[in-house]
Amino acid sequence: MLLAKEQQVYKQLDQVYDPELDQPLTELGFIDHTKIDGNQVQVVFRLPTYWCSPNFAFIMAEDIRTSISQLEWVREVKVNLIDHCASDEINQGVSKGKRFSESTSRFGASDGELDELRRTFQIKAFYAREEKLIKHLLAQGLSKEAIIAMTLEQLHQLPLTEEGQNMRSRYVEKKAQLNHAGFWAFTTPEGEALTPEGFADYLLGAKRTRLSMEFNGHYCRGLLEARYDLEATVTEGT
């Protein structure tokens, strides 16, 4: 029974992403361990440096608590950020359901700034996920014109490989987070249609965003591995 609960907890944690890197905390190695006691769950997580942005750390802690709380059998979630300059403030604030400004007043950031930061990261993740999916579709033989003209319904009906299905699911998820209610499958983060004239430049900009995020991800993994003397991870080249 405990093993089943642990598996459920980690399945939820697989859906919690570093906001800046758009990668699961589980893949990044940020989850140190979990502890389950009846219907109480404690999640202990760590970051690459002592001075990692408190804003980012708070977002991750809050998202961990929200995600684990969705399990029907869970009654209490304790998030424990360790080895960080704002561990005490973040842990206490998130556990009590406080806003960022209430929890970390000494760092001077407002709730509005944190919400704006979340939005910025959502847009960057949108660019990265969209570029990867479009690149995949182009490699599958779809033309630029077909991609631009594709509706969201057509995208859902498109027969894709398992890899392509995963890319599509991740991209559509981000569209939903940005409240896209439009007709077209591929748009700007603001929901505006792409054009044939601007397609190449748009895709290049999205690629640069993705590469920057992936580079930062490799860098953070390296810092974490060095800090905690972990075995180096091997990731695919880009």
UniProtKB/TrEMBL annotation:
InterPro entries, per database record: FSCA_dom_sf (IPR034904), MIP18-like (IPR002744)
Segments forming domain MIP18 family-like: 6-79
Protein name: MIP18 family-like domain-containing protein
Domain of life: Bacteria
Species this chain originates from: Paenibacillus naphthalenovorans
